[in-house]
Amino acid sequence: MASATSPTSLSLLPSSSSFSSSRSRSSVQVAASLSSPRFPNLGLRVPLRRLGFSGTAADPLFSYHVAPKIRGNGKGLRGVVSMAKKSVGDLTVADLKGKKVFVRADLNVPLDDSQNITDDTRIRAAIPTIKYLIEKGAKVILSSHLGRPKGVTPKFSLAPLVPRLSELLGIKVEKADDCIGPDVEKIVAALPEGGVLLLENVRFYKEEEKNEPEFAKKLASLADLYVNDAFGTAHRAHASTEGVTKFLKPSVAGFLLQKELDYLVGAVSNPKRPFASIVGGSKVSSKIGVIESLLEKCDILLLGGGMIFTFYKAQGLSVGSSLVEEDKLELATSLLAKAKAKGVSLLLPTDVIIADKFAPDANSKVVPASAIPDGWMGLDIGPDSVKTFSDALETTKTVIWNGPMGVFEFEKFAVGTESIAKKLAELSGKGVTTIIGGGDSVAAVEKVGVADVMSHISTGGGASLELLEGKELPGVLALDEVIPVPV
Ligand SMILES: Nc1ncnc2c1ncn2[C@@H]1O[C@H](COP(=O)(O)OP(=O)(O)O)[C@@H](O)[C@H]1O
Ligand SMILES: O=C(OP(=O)(O)O)[C@H](O)COP(=O)(O)O
């Protein structure tokens, strides 16, 4: 079942610019990262064409960022990659040609009532890893979930994804009606080198989410080695994301998974400063972990969205009928105190756009944060706040954003969120590392049409939130570690 593993990836920074190595290409590109002006602290934007992929470096989904995640140990080693996982880029033709590779991707894309894909971002994001494997002569067994089906449910079949996958890969993708069993085994046996077989929705089996070892073993028995590229599902310890690694070696990270980690862990823990975090969204309760974790790392914290009213109320301001979490008032106060103690510049909006009802056609007006009348609710940050936030961001070198500034689903209350998206796009153009950490902020950035210029847009909402909270993801933990090599 398991094939011989490839040589480990290079996990240390080169000690001089004349560094040369016969090791994997991605490792050599880590060396090049030292002098990248765009991304000086972390890594190089590596155009995938250098790895044989199409696409442009301007498209965040078609670039692979190598981030070395350095931590010096002061004992002669120049640095060690922390938490480094083996990458598919470390596997060569010798490792892959003729091998059956189980690729877990997150192809959980939205479909309309006619089963048309309404956003193919996750499919496009999965392509670089699949292409790499195809080009190395592997036989790709592609697995994903779609939705949250309870048993076999036709509307959650992965069949509608086949045409788009085939189009993007430039080959005819085969589709199985199941994800395990003799019929699937037959198709796998007939799969040519460079062929791709899409398995049926792995969540049609309840054993998937229960991470049942017998089911994981059956999935694993289809292949020789495992690649996890399903970032959006990496926070789930499921059979196809975690359990399968116990039966398949090597188990390595795909390009997308690695890029997500490079940004959401690497760039955030080793940021180019000043480092600003922007946190919004509806409730402070769902962002406590993220705020607390970012307070440890950032220089500036900008807060927006519905959560600000809990902070206002905690400071004794009237908030009208704005969203407030009464049981989080003390927490809000303690977060403000913590920011102060840590020397983090925490900014709350100074003005807000209020509405007389929660509706797209509500009457609205701009008021100072201290003057929200009874019966009115704050649904967006105001123009002065947009200016203050933009000015605060002006000097930053790294910005991470999670959560909208207001109810951006309603046109009238989308200005704050859209202005921040535009500001980040502008900063990105000036070389600032801009990271959009999943969820509704991604939708906002896409709505404004500036997604392509951001340094990184996460493909996982829940997964990115957990990473930003400092949690480890089971789908990542289970992968093979890179063994540090002294230089
Ligand atoms: N002032 C506000 N009042 C009520 N809801 C808000 C407000 N500002 C933002 N929201 C809502 O927050 C939601 C996003 O919150 P959340 O799920 O926490 O963020 P994300 O999806 O980015 O993680 C959006 O649907 C938005 O309408
Ligand atoms: O869409 C997903 O997560 P997200 O909505 O948090 O980005 C993933 O595919 C995970 O799906 P799940 O939350 O049903 O496990």
From TrEMBL:
<keyword id="KW-0460">Magnesium</keyword>
<dbReference type="InterPro" id="IPR001576">
    <property type="entry name" value="Phosphoglycerate_kinase"/>
</dbReference>
<dbReference type="GO" id="GO:0006094">
    <property type="term" value="P:gluconeogenesis"/>
</dbReference>
<comment type="subunit">
    <text>Monomer.</text>
</comment>
<comment type="similarity">
    <text>Belongs to the phosphoglycerate kinase family.</text>
</comment>
<dbReference type="GO" id="GO:0043531">
    <property type="term" value="F:ADP binding"/>
</dbReference>
<dbReference type="GO" id="GO:0005524">
    <property type="term" value="F:ATP binding"/>
</dbReference>
<dbReference type="GO" id="GO:0005829">
    <property type="term" value="C:cytosol"/>
</dbReference>
<keyword id="KW-0418">Kinase</keyword>
<dbReference type="InterPro" id="IPR015824">
    <property type="entry name" value="Phosphoglycerate_kinase_N"/>
</dbReference>
<feature type="region of interest" description="Disordered">
    <location>
        <begin position="1"/>
        <end position="22"/>
    </location>
</feature>
<dbReference type="Pfam" id="PF00162">
    <property type="entry name" value="PGK"/>
</dbReference>
<dbReference type="GO" id="GO:0004618">
    <property type="term" value="F:phosphoglycerate kinase activity"/>
</dbReference>
<comment type="pathway">
    <text>Carbohydrate biosynthesis; Calvin cycle.</text>
</comment>
<protein>
    <recommendedName>
        <fullName>Phosphoglycerate kinase</fullName>
        <ecNumber>2.7.2.3</ecNumber>
    </recommendedName>
</protein>
<keyword id="KW-0808">Transferase</keyword>
<dbReference type="GO" id="GO:0006096">
    <property type="term" value="P:glycolytic process"/>
</dbReference>
<keyword id="KW-0067">ATP-binding</keyword>
<dbReference type="InterPro" id="IPR015911">
    <property type="entry name" value="Phosphoglycerate_kinase_CS"/>
</dbReference>
<keyword id="KW-0547">Nucleotide-binding</keyword>
<dbReference type="InterPro" id="IPR036043">
    <property type="entry name" value="Phosphoglycerate_kinase_sf"/>
</dbReference>
